[in-house]
Amino acid sequence: MCPLNLLQQTSVLMILACATLGCGGGSDGRLPATGNVTFDGSPLTEGTVVFADENGGSAGVGIIKDGKFTLSETGNSTGIQPGTYKVSVNSWIVEPGGVDENDEIIDKGESRIPAKYNDPKTSGLTATVTADTQEFNFELTSK
Fold first, then answer.
1. For 110, which of 40, 93, 105, 115 could close a Cys bridge (C-beta 3.0–4.6 Å)?
2. 110-111 and 105-106 as β-strands: parallel, antiparallel, unpaired?
3. How many CB atoms lie within 10 A of CB 80?
4. Distance of CA 51 to CAs 21, 37, 88, 98, 118, Å?
5. Are 37 and 125 in contact (CB under 8 A)?
6. What b-and-e string marks burial along 82-114, b requiring 16 or more CB atoms within 10 Å of the CB?
7. Which residues are registered as beta bridge partners of 36?
8. Would you say residue 27 has pLDDT above 70?
9. Would you state the pLDDT for residue 23?
10. pLDDT higher than threshold 90 for residue 94
11. What are the φ/ψ torsions at residue 57 (nearest 5 degrees)?
């Protein structure tokens, strides 16, 4: 048996990786999920959207910029597994544990939106991700 050259070795490794990990993306079942968040009718300028699983753990997180977000399960994988999720939205002027203009620690932080949206148990927001439904719009109000 003759030894493989570098090009042949690389080809074999790529074939093995595809067979082991799957090629073409999406083989793990994640679906792209995007959306919009408004607050009192205007796009929420910044913040995060968290889709929580039935145990309250984070299943997907999206960074809000100018009212738009795209969900990711981890920093290097986009999309989220299909399912029904409770949703929370955070948008902080001063993060909890941050400091104010006098360098005083603010334990509770200062939110741009009502506190009820910060927790998936109290937000009243839900989302069901399916092959047919992957865009979500959340309309938050100050009332």
1. 93
2. unpaired
3. 24
4. 26, 13, 7, 24, 12
5. no
6. ebebbbbbbbbeeeeeeeeeeeeeeeeeebbbe
7. 68, 137
8. no
9. 37
10. no
11. -80, 150
